[in-house]
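User: structure tokens for this one?
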Amino acid sequence: MKVEKLGYDIALIDLYDVGLDQRTGSYVFLEEDITIIETSASPSIPYLLNGLKELGVDPKTVKNIIVTHIHLDHAGGVGLLLEHCPQAKVFVHPKGKRHLADPSRLIESAKTVYGEQKFNQLFDPILPVPEERLIVKEHLDTLKIGENRILTFYHTPGHANHHFSIFDPVSNGMFTGDTIGVFYTKLLDSGLEFYLPSTSPNQFDPNKMLDSLKRIEELNVSYIYFGHYGMSEHPEVVFNQVKYWLDLFVDNGRQIILQNENKSFEEKSKLLFDLLYRTICGYLNEKGISAEHEVHQYLKLDLMICSQGIIDYLQKS
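Assistant:
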């Protein structure tokens, strides 16, 4: 069990998403109104409950559960968590509310992608959230969770249209979900800070992503709290790396499409994955990161999905 106190009455619980540590996390505000950001999928809920116990938090006292967006690795477990949090309300982007109330389309889509057996392993069960426990937050809406703590919601599309980020004035930090990428904290022990954009299908849009990044950048935040995974104290490094890799991802996607017009979506996605993975391996090798480093397991998972999102976007546009 890994629970880390980050300061400013914020804690991070490792949810061991897909069985991997430092993959997906929940943030807990230890305020009068206990507030959780992100739940991951249902198999992560035991880790979340154990983390709350370690923090001395009774789930029955949790008041607010916020999901940055409705992708299953961020919100798939919220219905199951609610069974342990009878007082809690769930806060969601207006475009995501109906899918939490009726997750049938989320379930159908995930089963199509992963198959029945893999779906059961990664996501089951996905439980509906009662309508009366769902609260929509529009752009610039707020939520008071403590005497001196008022969170502000910013709509931040790019990764998904049903995505918002949450600004915390006490830490001067932004909880960004996936909208400005992934933080590979596994590399910190090797002295490398490394961030990549998250460009998964089917709503990825690089222009919207850059607009969302700029919106966050203009707030001059001191910290960025990633859904995957952990807190960055160097926002400018985040912004610069995500911009660089996003341009490279999309440019390489265009190159693959132009050179392989007659190939299938799956073939183009695989070719782009191979190109991006070789490029990033070369970059990491220059930084002294070996091909045997465990970060490669995370990179392969992410880049396969990212490649699909880029090809999907380019073919649509």
